[in-house]
Amino acid sequence: MALSGLDIYKLLPKTNCRECGFVTCLAFAMQLVKRQALPEKCPYLSEQAKSALDAASRPPIKLVVIGEGEDKLEIGNETVMFRHEEKFHHPTGLGFIIEDGLSSEEILKTVNKINALSFERIGCLLRPNLIAIKQNGDASVFAAAVKLVKEHTNLGLVLISKDASAQRSALEIAACGKPLIYGLDKNNLEAFTKLAVEFKVPLVVSLQDLSELSAVAGKLIAQGVEDLILDTGNKNIAEKIWDLTQIRRRGLYRSERSLGFPTIVTIEDSADRFDPILEAATYIAKYAGVVLIKANEPWQALSLLTLRQNIYTDPQRPLQVESKLYPIGNTSDKSPVLITTNFSLSYYTVLGEVEASKIPAYIMTIDTEGMSVLTAWAAEKFTPESISAAIDKYGLKEQVCHKQLVIPGYVAVMSGKLEDACGWQVAVGPKEASGIPSFLKNLQL
Question: Do the Cβ atoms of 66 and 130 come closer than 8 Å?
Fold first, then answer.
């Protein structure tokens, strides 16, 4: 259970020695609450106090790892219900289901298709995380499918089967990659527990009733299985959202250790191409740690990955690029110069339109702490003075022989002051980035 600042203060020596770097022990305690200092900073902390602080500092939602190496998936370790309170730390894992009844050629084709799902958006690489193999045949067919998938992907694996013997065969092939085993129920509880302990892999606990789910999870923890992921089975969207919210709430606010784990949702196939994506989007927005779907078309994956990126960015620290002068294409000293902010979305939107115009140009990004154009202008961070300073800082005069800048249309009001401040001619560009290609084609330098 989380401790307050006063609770932590009572555990400290109360000497105000300042060796921790803070003026008083109370000030140090308040920094510990905010997680902006470590207990080790206090040289006089007793072992009992250290143990109490360690227990209190454990995340209410346990971190669980699936897979290995650079492609491993980390989920959990969340500390808030709502993104604006702090941020969400570990993005929802997105995985695609392959059934073992497919032919080897079909399985391989699907794996290669999933491996190719990679998109770049505002400077970030977006990729799925998992491939789930679902058993429909006998144990040998399942094991063969797992072996084939493992040999052709670096993504984490999810092994979906209620047959403990089939899971054992699959784990003997894939356990080194730390797959997730999925299929535990009341009938195979003991066998699956042994598998999780023996192979040291995470385990999905799947029961529809939350109280029963909590009880079984508690028993598994007592038996040494702590890498758990919770599932409440097949339900409609409203019921599922309720379950996901209650699990998160009880883990965070009630410190229920048996529910302090990430969750997983499996979405059934549908004749409609959009329904599974809309359902998956709902669960990404509301607390699912892993979402497994069959739909694996690029447009379906991109929509979910884009949503996930938007939700799991830090709302207090906008994505931003380095502030500098960027040459786009085969630039020369006669190339136009476009001014924008260092907000990633602004920069990459302008970049895409400049590339589409096929006219070599410079983009100069102004350090606005990641704010967009209008926001930065309103906050007085995108100003004639900051632009003038950037012209000198990035040596723009040495790069081009003309003295003309292009500013965004939404801040046309600053054009006169900018000309006075820097001595350059200012052209007002389009308000929307989509107008950049035609604007550049008609621009007279």
Answer: yes
Residues 86-95 have pLDDT tens digits of 788 899 999 9
The neighbouring-strand residues paired with 40 are: none
Domain count along the chain: 3
User: Is 411 domain-assigned?
Assistant: yes
Query: What are the pLDDT digits (tens) for 360-415?
Result: 999 999 999 999 999 999 999 999 999 999 999 999 999 999 999 999 999 999 99
Q: Is the distance from CB of 293 to CB of 303 less than 8 angstroms? A: no
> Which residue, 328, 333, 374, is CA-closest to 353?
328
The β-bridge partners of 231 are 206
Distance CA 88, CA 90 (A): 6
Query: Do 265 and 293 belong together in one domain?
Result: yes
**Dihedral angle at the C-alpha atoms of 134, 138, 144, 148, nearest 10 degrees?**
-20
The whole domain housing 12 covers 5-57
By DSSP bridging, strand 361-366 and strand 425-428 are unpaired
* Model pTM score: 0.79
Q: Which of 393, 396, 388 lies closest to 363, judged by CA? A: 396
Cα(120)–Cα(288) distance, integer angstroms: 24
Which regions of 145-213 does DSSP assign to beta strands (E)? 156-160, 180-184, 203-206
Contact 325, 300 (CB under 8 A): no
Helix (H, G, I), strand (E, B) or coil at 225: coil
Same domain as 255, residue 198:
yes
Residue 288's alpha-carbon distances to 196, 282, 415, in angstroms, are: 22, 9, 48
Residue 317 domain flag: no
34, 70: one domain: no
- Residue 318: inside a domain, yes or no? no
For residues 129 and 156, the answer to whether their CB atoms sit within 8 Å is: yes
Q: What are phi and psi of 309, to 5 degrees?
A: -60, -40
